[in-house]
Design goal:
With 225 residues, the protein is α+β, with helices and mostly antiparallel strands. Helices cover 58% and strands 8% of the residues. The protein contains nine helices and four strands, in the order E-H-E-H-E-E-H-H-H-H-H-H-H. It has helices at residues 14-26, 42-47, 67-77, 90-116, 120-139, 154-173, 184-195, 197-200, 206-222; strands at 5-9, 31-34, 56-59, 62-65. It has a four-stranded mixed β-sheet, with helices on one face. A hairpin with a 2-residue loop joins strand 3 and strand 4.
Length: 225
């Protein structure tokens, strides 16, 4: 019980899944506690009073919040379990942190904006910066199977949402977001990532994702600015 690990998450949270994958890569046993974010539990509010969001990792009774912080905590705490998620070299580690921040601050918002914009023309306009950001991240895969090298690492986990969610977005909004011919390295990475056992066994059901995002998209399209 002293080393007990709990993860507060939802079934589809992109940020929670980073932690799910990391725990399985490391082979860490944990208890998953699924939250209903429309009726947040007292425990979640107690453990994350600042943001009141998932994921929250609770280890030895102490909460750690924010997915990027949790990933580093997991890597530091369970160093001997597997290959490290973050590079050991200080420069490479700094670069991994830089690109993880790029994913969260630039790439993810730009792709999300294509989804949320109203109307075909507005979506096509929003696609331009999204594609530019994809081009930047494609460059980082040159000569590598994963961003972490030969095994899944920190940046791979941060970008993992893209591997399973882009085609869901495409189906829902009826617009091509990702051209495999234009991004051959990312295309190969997406397949390799989703084929990894620790990832494949813990992906959300695609049909449920389509239903969720269809409802969300409909809401965005009908809500007044």
């Amino acid at each position: 019980m002293a080393d007990e690990v709990k993860l507060y998450r939802t079934w589809s949270s992109r940020f929670s899944l980073r932690i799910v994958w990391a725990l399985h890569i490391k082979g860490i046993e944990y208890e998953a506690i699924f939250e209903d974010l429309s009726h947040k539990s007292p425990q979640l509010l107690q453990y994350n009073p600042v943001h009141k969001k998932v994921p929250v990792l609770v280890h030895k009774g102490k909460p750690i919040c924010e997915s990027l912080v949790i990933l580093e905590y997991i890597d530091e705490t369970w160093k001997k379990e597997t290959t490290p998620l973050l590079p050991q070299d200080p420069y490479e580690k700094a670069m991994a942190r830089f690109w993880a921040k790029f994913v969260d601050d630039k790439l993810l918002p730009s792709v999300t904006s294509v989804f949320t914009e109203k109307g075909y023309e507005a979506k096509k306009e929003a696609l331009v910066p999204a594609v530019q950001n994809l081009e930047l991240i494609e460059e980082q895969l040159k000569g590598k199977k994963f961003f972490g090298g030969e095994s899944i690492g920190y940046v791979d986990l941060v970008l993992g949402w893209m591997a399973y969610l882009l085609d869901v977005f495409e189906e829902v909004i009826d617009l091509k977001l990702f051209d495999a011919h234009k991004f051959p390295l990312l295309s190969g990475w997406m397949k390799n990532f989703c084929d990894a056992p620790a990832i494949k066994q813990h992906l959300p059901p695609r049909d449920k994702l389509v239903t969720k995002y269809q409802l969300l998209h409909e809401k965005y399209q009908t809500t007044s600015n």
